[in-house]
Amino acid sequence: MEDADARTGQAPGGRLTRLIAGRRTAWLVALLPLLLGVLMLGLVGEGERTRTDVDALPAGQDSTYATELQEQLPDEGASSAVVVFSASGGGELDAATLKQLRGIASDVKAAPVGPDGPLQVSEDGTAAIAIVPVKATTSDENSDVVIDLRDRLAEQVPDGVQEEVTGPAAVRADLAEVFAGADVRLLLATVAIVAVLLVITYRSPVLWLVPIIVVGVADRVAAILATQVLARLDVAWDESTVGILSVLVFGAGTNYALLLISRYRDELRRRESRHDAMRIALGRTAPAVLASATTVVLGVLTLLLSLTPTTRGLGLATAIGIVVAVFAALVVLPAALVLFGRWIFWPKVPRVGEPALVESTTSIWARIGRQVARRPAAFVVGSLVLLALLATGVLGVQSGLDTEDQFLDEPEAITALQRVGESFPAGLVDPARVVTADDDPQAVLRTISQTEGVSGARLTEEGNGVAQIEAVLAGDPGSAEVRDGIERLRDRLADFDDTHVTGTEAQALDENTGAVRDRTVILPLILVLVLGALLVLLRAPVAAVLLVLTVLATYVAALGASWWLFTGPLGFDALDNSTPLLSFLFLVALGVDYNIFLVTRAREEARRHGPRRGMLRALTATGGVITSAGIVLAAVFAVLGVLPLVVLAQIGTVICIGVLLDTLLVRTVLVPALALLLGDRFWWPRRFPDEAPAGDPEGAPQAAPAR
After folding, report:
1. How far apart are CA 416 and CA 82, in angstroms?
2. How far is Cα 25 from Cα 21, in angstroms, rounded to an integer?
3. What pLDDT was estimated at residue 381?
4. Between the CA of residue 366 and those of 190, 358, 606, 625, 663, what are the distances in Å?
5. Helix, strand or coil, per DSSP, at residue 78
């Protein structure tokens, strides 16, 4: 038997690979985890945790301190909904209608806002608003109150009047509503896309079922384990965490499966026993998969350094997800595959004696390799010029989305907010809130009223030594005028004890500050970790540094290209604060996987064929599977667009473009060209045998010599 161990007569591989792919043990290794996973789905639900108002706020910021101080107020958890009444035809509201609306506002317990009681009429007479306090400690309670308010208004409002509900409570409720069922839609869309791409890749009506079932069960198990761990550790997460986790598990798990099955197919062409073939395939695939997975896990764990609790939760959850995906791909999947005969590859069943893919001289990847080998310097320059042109888009990038720009489809709370802005001062509906524990809240109120840019202020709540003051700021939401007003307010209140400013605009300002800090700390750390992982794996400093630089160039180019797409066809005005960090994390951590898969195979081939032919043979062998994996991963992240938030659509777009660039340009052309251009220097201080024979000037793949 080829490659057999001389002492045992068995195909090489450790005890673990023999256990996973063994004739007597494979069924147990495959079925036991799957059955346990199915039982977990039925018996153990996702973890639950009572969410707090500071979960999405960066620690140590002024608005975060204010939100924590609000918990001491008698109406802890109180928010507000703003009811907007407007004439259906765009005309003025007459006196009789306004009288009815005042009665309705009193009935829903709207707070008095002026001399006219609970109803405030615009100067042009076309609209009126009522502010309804909403007390709720959870998102579900908040949603129930807002839904009930809307139902009551729909029954009571007279004909000819249009009613809408906005304000902080309504925005929060609509966010929860648009996420209702979103995880199911995301999962179904992900499964559908992965299934189609696997069928196209394998060209088999049967084979795709095995990896998709294994990865699908792993995805649900990862969601349960991650949320249960987060709940036990009291780590915050939000509605998008499980969605991103699902995309990551499906994307990474499918990538690992494609790599394993490709190597398994090659080994089936060399060995009669499918168990021996799987042992070899698993033994040679596992190091690259484990190296890439370790890089991803270390990368996502850097999010634990974030100031924002939900971002830390995302980092821990996705790390758990990657571990589950690796277990599924390297333990459950190979055991499941060997339970079936070669027929599972039908109609393209691999037969013993067929040439392996690495020996091909006619495949597209072999032809690309020959072209790159002829003029590697030209391909390096051309690739870098293209990446640089795409990267110029980053020069115009702006971050920080306004509230009304955070949804792909505008819910009622957003359209109503825009209607209020047409007839009322911009800061009336969602004022800045000053929370103070100072002994003299009236002095705080006077200082606020005398601050430039404040058009009105009133004490709205007091108790337990804490007072809350609402301040209406001049300027449109999200404008520089409002941000300057927040900063002036904070400067004027700095001398008062334990006095802080919060509200939507203040929180947005602090979130941007926290995001800048997170990027400053986490982005360099990710690069250091990825570089360290490559150095340990390759023991070739030049190769490791070049691979990191290519991935970094891919990210910058993807962000630049995405910015043109966002400001053009998609119509976004800015990036969400978290988009640059999360897209960088996932793109760098996942993008380096393909370079790991390529260069580890190149190193393996270089031991027998030299660095030049080794790289070309690696490109020929891995070109198809890595390209398929990249397309699957890009498509899976693009599916984030089915979720309702702009930030998820932006993250998915950047990663999708980046993965395609990395797969089709960087890994296919740039990295091989660099390796061919540098020769032995690429692998320094490693040394490999001499290059291909003189009759092979282009380094074209040839049949391996017989052992």
Report:
1. 9
2. 7
3. 95
4. 32, 9, 16, 14, 16
5. strand
| Residue 611: partners with Cβ closer than 8 Å, 6 or more residues away | 602, 675, 679, 680, 682, 683, 688, 691
CA distance 174 to 165: 10
Which residue from 510, 506, 446, 447 is spatially nearest to 482, judged by alpha carbons? 506
Strands 161-166 and 454-463: what pairing? Answer: unpaired
Q: Is 9 exposed, middle or buried (0-12, 13-18, 19+ CB in 10 A)?
A: exposed
The two structure tokens encoding residue 43: 């018996």
Provide the pLDDT for residue 358.
63
3-state secondary structure of 439: coil
**Residue 571 and residue 579 in contact, taking contact as beta carbons nearer than 8 Å:** no
Joined together, the tokens standing for residue 156 give: 């009571």
Which two tokens mark 693?
């024979």
Which are the contacts of 566, defined by CB distance < 8 A and separation ≥ 6? 572, 575, 650, 653
pLDDT tens, residue by residue, 88-146: 777 788 888 888 888 888 888 877 766 666 888 888 888 888 888 887 766 777 788 88
Q: φ and ψ at 126, to 5 degrees?
A: -90, -10
Res. 697 pLDDT band, cuts 50 70 90: very low
User: Mapped to the 3 state alphabet, what secondary structure does 466-510 carry?
Assistant: EEEEEEEECCCCCCHHHHHHHHHHHHHCCCCCCEEEECHHHHHHH
**Is the four-CA dihedral 351, 354, 355, 357 of positive or negative sign?**
negative
Of 592, 596, 667, 632, the closest CA to residue 368 belongs to 667
> CA 165 to CA 664: how far, in whole Å?
48
For 539, phi then psi, to 5°, come to 55, 40
* DSSP at 620: H
Cβ-contact 340, 275 below 8 angstroms:
no
Neighbours of 353 (CB within 10 A): 7
CA-to-CA distance for 178 and 51, rounded, in angstroms?
A: 18
Residue 583 to residue 519: CA distance in whole angstroms: 11
On the question of a cis peptide bond just before residue 685, with omega within 30 degrees of 0, the verdict is: yes
Dihedral sign from CA coordinates of 449, 453, 458, 463: negative
Supply angle C-alpha 599, 603, 605, rounded to 5.
115
- Residues near 378 by Cβ (< 8 Å), separated by ≥ 6? none
Cβ count near 562 (within 10 Å): 28
Give the three-class secondary structure for 60. coil
Let me know: does 350 contact 269? Beta carbons within 8 Å.
Answer: yes
Residue pair 523/311 in contact (Cβ under 8 Å)? The answer is no
The pTM for the full model equals: 0.85
CA distances to 206, 335, 340 from 343, rounded to whole Å, are: 9, 16, 7
Helices (H) and strands (E) in the chain, counts: 23, 8
Q: What are the angstrom distances between the C-alpha of 262 and each of 57, 80, 126, 475, 703? A: 45, 57, 67, 60, 19
In this structure, the strands spanning 432-436 and 127-135 are unpaired
- Residues 402, 482: contact at Cβ < 8 Å? no
The residues near 219 (Cβ < 8 Å, ≥ 6 apart) are 187, 246, 249, 250, 253, 321
Q: Which residue has the tokens 């949320």?
A: 227
Q: Which tokens go with 468?
A: 């809350």
Instruction: Give φ, ψ of 502 to 5 degrees.
Output: -135, -160
Distance CA 223, CA 217 (A): 10
